[in-house]
């Protein structure tokens, strides 16, 4: 264990995890950032002198779909060389330890799945799936390089990234499952998220109000820190591996 980690707090958090039959996790951009994925609001949020938020809207796509696709194709290209980090791998390991486990992610890169996580709810969609703006069909284009204006192979309509843009609603079924996981868990891990992007950030309050213990793992305190039973501050890739390993030592096999 790294010398600057709070050993007592980490052990306390591990005991909570070990005693939990149902664990939910909410992850945000901070987890992906440790793999080198640029964040929308961080230093990597500027692209061609344009804020990422400015191209991640249905209005922007309607004005200039070629420009929006240039942005997303650039992000897809960069992701080809990016791999899961120790935080992703630790969460995949945690899933194997817990009887009921749900990972809710705001990230669109699918690094959790690459790391081995199986029960993943993508509340903001993912960058590898595309959806036809005409017929609504979706296609998995993981790892594929797309043309400037990709067309639907079914009807020929213009494709768009199947991500949730600003000004759009979250997918109802996925969001309902995420809320249910938060309400029904014994422990909610909040990892690498600013806790400012709603409605996803509200899952921490949903869990806490339902009686769950909230454990926050972040570089610094966030609004969720106010309701967290335990706060562990530092890189998730440094905190989660020893936390999950210690929980495994303490857990009674189910």
Question: Can you describe what's shown?
Answer:
The protein is α/β, with parallel strands linked by helices. It folds into 2 domains: 7-37 and 84-124 and 170-250, Rossmann fold (3-Layer(aba) Sandwich), CATH 3.40.50.1220; 43-81 and 131-163, SIR2/SIRT2 'Small Domain'. Helices cover 37% and strands 20% of the residues. The protein has 10 helices and 11 strands. The chain has helices at residues 7-18, 29-33, 52-55, 58-63, 65-79, 86-97, 111-115, 172-184, 203-209, 236-250, and strands at 22-27, 46-47, 50-51, 100-105, 120-122, 125-132, 138-140, 159-163, 187-191, 213-218, 230-233. The strands form 3 sheets. A 6-stranded parallel beta sheet has the order 5-4-1-9-10-11, with helices on both faces. Strands 7-6-8 form a 3-stranded antiparallel beta sheet, covered by helices on one side. Helix 1 (7-18) crosses helix 10 and helix 8 packs parallel to helix 9 (203-209). The mean pLDDT is 93.
What labels would you give this structure?
SIR2/SIRT2 'Small Domain', Rossmann fold, single chain, elongated, 10 helices, 20% strand, 254 residues
Secondary structure layout plus pairing:
Blueprint lengths: L6 H12 L3 E6 L1 H5 L12 E2 L2 E2 H4 L2 H6 L1 H15 L6 H12 L2 E6 L5 H5 L4 E3 L2 E8 L5 E3 L18 E5 L8 H13 L2 E5 L11 H7 L3 E6 L11 E4 L2 H15 L4
Parallel strand pairs: 1-4, 1-9, 4-5, 9-10, 10-11
Antiparallel strand pairs: 2-3, 6-7, 6-8
């Amino acid at each position: 264990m790294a010398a600057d980690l709070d050993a007592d707090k980490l052990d306390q958090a591990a005991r909570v995890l070990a005693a939990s039959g149902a664990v939910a996790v909410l992850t945000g951009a901070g987890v992906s950032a440790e793999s080198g994925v640029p964040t929308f609001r961080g230093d990597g949020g500027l692209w061609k002198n344009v804020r990422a938020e400015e191209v991640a809207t249905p209005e922007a796509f309607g004005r200039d779909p070629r420009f929006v696709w240039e942005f997303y194709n650039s992000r897809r290209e960069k992701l080809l060389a990016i791999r899961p980090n120790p935080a992703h791998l630790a969460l995949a390991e945690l899933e194997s330890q817990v009887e009921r486990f749900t990972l809710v992610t705001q990230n669109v890169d699918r690094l959790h799945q690459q790391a081995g996580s199986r029960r993943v709810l993508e509340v903001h969609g993912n960058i590898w799936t595309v959806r036809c703006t005409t017929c609504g069909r979706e296609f998995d284009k993981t790892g594929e390089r797309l043309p400037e204006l990709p067309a639907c192979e079914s009807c020929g309509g213009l494709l768009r990234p199947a991500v949730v843009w600003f000004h759009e609603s979250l997918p109802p079924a996925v969001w309902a499952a995420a809320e249910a996981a938060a309400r029904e868990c014994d422990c909610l891990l909040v990892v690498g998220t600013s806790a400012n992007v709603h409605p996803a950030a509200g899952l921490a309050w949903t869990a806490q109000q339902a009686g769950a213990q909230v454990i926050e793992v972040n570089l610094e305190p966030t609004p969720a820190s106010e309701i967290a039973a335990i706060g562990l501050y530092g890189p998730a890739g440094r905190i989660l591996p020893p936390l999950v390993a210690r929980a495994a030592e303490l857990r009674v096999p189910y």
